[in-house]
Amino acid sequence: MPSQGIIFILIATFAFAFMNVLAKVLSGMHVSQIIFVRALGTFVFVFPYMLSKGISIRGNHPALLSVRAVLGLISLACFFMAIQIIPLGSAISIRYLGPIFGAFLAFIYLKERVNAWQWVSFAIAFSGVIVIKGFDLRVSTFGLVLSLVSAFFLGITFVLIRYLATREHYLTIINYFMGTSILISLFFMGLWRWPIGHEWYAVAGIGVFGLVGQVCMTRAFAAEETSVIAPFKYMEVIHAIILGLVFFGEGYSLMAIVGIALIVGGMIMNVMAKEKSNKIRRPFLRK
Fold first, then answer.
1. What contacts 151, CB < 8 A, 6 or more positions away?
2. In angstroms, rounded to a whole number, what is the distance separating the alpha carbons of residues 255 and 188?
């Protein structure tokens, strides 16, 4: 029987994958409108809860919280634009390179150690991007660039979240992101349109599935060690490949699957290598 943490992470990965399916369904809408709907679905639940529990809305580091929110918004906007023009599974796989960019930045600015096996895992993951681009003609250069830019800014947000995590309540960090996404999206209202037909279901669902994913992800990491949970996070790619095939007829060649597998495998290897390195250092830190 899987642990509670693993069950939560599997629910979260499916919820996020299905949320991305709904975002792709809404490809005819401006990306800011999709972001608005996604953020509003979480904000309307998180904000009242924070007020009822007395959790700080402003936070202790408003400037850093705002920077993290804006960079996260850029990452999300690039990702939603990418899934409009390239297969869902490929876009999600490439975006998962975010931790690599985060590790590079943490290595440079936070002086965090990166061991030899992590560097090998990074090389494996990047080779997967090359394979996908070389063998999947549906992955345009523009779509690839959007996915990589999304991953890069996601990596920066990882570094900022790592810094803020011990200084701010996790809901304060989430609320800043959702609130900022809503406010900035409103500047593009002139480009919005009313949903039509089945788009209404997608509009309603994207916020709900985004919220479910956010809650279950948080519960998962609270219930289980990161080293146990993190590899299961990449199940989102498997969900995305299956859902992309079911809803959009997005099949994949063998080499495209190999490329995706290299990315996912490299990132799982990174998690395991980092955790092993941490376990080796912990006894020395205790002395």
1. 75, 94, 95, 96, 97, 98, 100, 101
2. 39
Question: And the tokens for 102?
Answer: 């985060």
Which letter, b or e, does each residue of 239-257 get, where b requires 16 or more Cβ atoms within 10 Å of its Cβ? Answer: bbbebbeeeeebebeeebb
Among residues 27, 40, 42, 132, the alpha carbon closest in space to that of 82 is found at: 27
Assigned token pair, 34: 């999709």
Tell me which residue of 233, 191, 156 sits closest to 35, measured CA to CA.
191
- Name the token pair of 85: 């023009």
Helix (H/G/I), strand (E/B), else coil: 253:
coil
The one-digit pLDDT tens for each residue of the chain (287 residues) are 678 888 999 999 999 999 999 999 999 999 999 999 999 999 999 999 999 999 999 999 999 999 999 999 999 999 999 999 999 999 999 999 998 898 888 888 777 788 888 899 999 999 999 999 999 989 999 999 999 999 999 999 988 988 898 899 989 999 999 999 999 999 999 999 999 999 999 999 998 999 898 889 878 877 777 667 778 888 999 999 999 999 999 999 999 999 999 999 999 988 888 777 666 555 444 44
Query: Look-up: residue for tokens 């993951």?
Result: 125
Token digits of residue 147:
């996915």
Q: What share of the chain is helix, strand, coil (3-state, %, to 5)?
A: 80, 0, 20
